[in-house]
Amino acid sequence: MVIIDRDGGGSPPVDELEAALAALAVDPPASLSARIFAQWCRVTSPTGDLYVAFSDQGISYVRTAEAVGDDETVFLESFRARFERPLLAADRPPPGLLPAVRTGRTRPLRFDLGQLTDFERAVLTVTAQIPAGQTRPYGWVAKEIGRPKAVRAVGTALGRNPVPVLIPCHRVTRSDGVPGEYVFGPQAKERLLRAEAVNLDEVRELASERIFYLGSDTTGIVCFPTCHHARRITAKHRKGFRNIEQAAEHGYRPCLHCRPGIATGDAVGA
DNA sequence: GGGCGGGCGGGAG
DNA sequence: ACTCCCGCCCGCC
């Protein structure tokens, strides 16, 4: 390590100076306006264009072009109504956004969820893990965050998701096989799911037979019907279950990938 | 099979 | 602070 000699008389301790300089060095202001104002851009995605607001903290707000009637002023106004801050046009999209929307892999994106409560952030963090082409029930999200009875509150939190599509709350569906409500309306939710090849017709058909889980009698593993692994079960080995207890009685254990019916015990907290 | 109450977080008053 | 009310729900009648 290089030590630069400094005269000691009257100046602050060297380690303090170094700490201050290090803080500046690791967090350089890219530009003053980028630090104060959020920026916005419009990007093309396979499911339609998106308006995206972001700062150096991450992506903070998303609307579909469809939802704002293809009108950027509607987007800007909706941002201002929620955040009470202005928005500047960006020179370029935030890092990683273009490949993320092109491939549908939005998980590595950085988000600025600072306005949200801990509960809402927990809900969105879990939701962000749901792979494209798969769905999970609201109750699953509730269990995953350790609040198994807060099912409806999960819906409320997802309804306030500031970054829909990128944090895929459209992949959280009702337990009876219908997609359920959505910020941009149920039909937008259904369209997004179909675009990522979720077989909603099959899910609905299974649900009508009271089948909400699928297992393979060759592996003894049970999954949500849209799980990547469930979709590989051949017809003759596929077993349907109404609930995870029934599957367990038949000797099936939950898939480690889609984690159906994870028992979490009592809710955490007050 | 839909209606009903349980359940819970958050915001309004 | 406390109550009331609403909401992308759930599962049992």
TrEMBL record:
Record has DNA damage as a keyword: yes
EC class of the enzyme, as a word: transferase
Keywords, alphabetical: Activator, DNA damage, DNA repair, Methyltransferase, Transferase
GO molecular function (one): DNA binding
Documented EC number(s): 2.1.1.63
UniProt entry tagged with the keyword Methyltransferase: yes
Catalytic activity: a 6-O-methyl-2'-deoxyguanosine in DNA + L-cysteinyl-[protein] = S-methyl-L-cysteinyl-[protein] + a 2'-deoxyguanosine in DNA; a 4-O-methyl-thymidine in DNA + L-cysteinyl-[protein] = a thymidine in DNA + S-methyl-L-cysteinyl-[protein]
Pfam family, one: Ada_Zn_binding
Domain Methylated-DNA-[protein]-cysteine S-methyltransferase DNA binding: 118-198
PANTHER family assigned to the protein according to its UniProt record, in alphabetical order: METHYLATED-DNA--PROTEIN-CYSTEINE METHYLTRANSFERASE
NCBIfam families: ogt (TIGR00589)
Protein family per UniProt: Belongs to the MGMT family.
Protein name as it appears in the record: methylated-DNA--[protein]-cysteine S-methyltransferase
Source organism (scientific name): Solihabitans fulvus
